[in-house]
Amino acid sequence: MTKHISVLVGSLRRGSYARKIANEVMNYFPEGYEAQIVEIRDLPLYDFDYDDPEVTDKPVPEEYTRFRETIKNSDGVLFVTPENNRTIPACLKNAVDIGSKPNSDVAWKNLPAGIISHSVGRMGGYSSQKNLRLALSYFDMPMPGQPEVFLGQSPTLFDESGKIGPERTVTFLRDYIDRFVKVVEAK
User: Which residue segments constitute the domains of the chain, with CATH numbers given?
Assistant: First the structure.
């Protein structure tokens, strides 16, 4: 049976490095896995009124329901994110918040997760990844251990054809995906 991996890209820009990285690493999953980007650009800003049973005049947006069901039907989720102002991009935090409700049916609960962060600077999205890990820690999401993936100076990673060029970076990312797959398989 095919395992489904939802890939969340923490950048809305079509040509973002996060999207380029995601498109590359989706090819590193083994046979029997289908990794697909789940778009978060059209998710309305999270508002608890939608999930509050006391509020009857604000129905849950269809986009929330679709997103939550997609995540719940996944065998794992891979986050690929840049760093914005030393934290996770607002669009990604919004998606995390939407998946965290309703309290009785949290989409993230116990779902295997992987995180790849990057930045155009040398830190590789360290703050972004640590903030995302903190936000996800509440949901008991199993994740691969060390080494974590912080890709610094991300514009330099791509060759003329748009592929990740340095062989050691490709090897490192393939190893991370292999370790993530082991977490998914153990679930």
Answer: 3-186 (3.40.50.360)
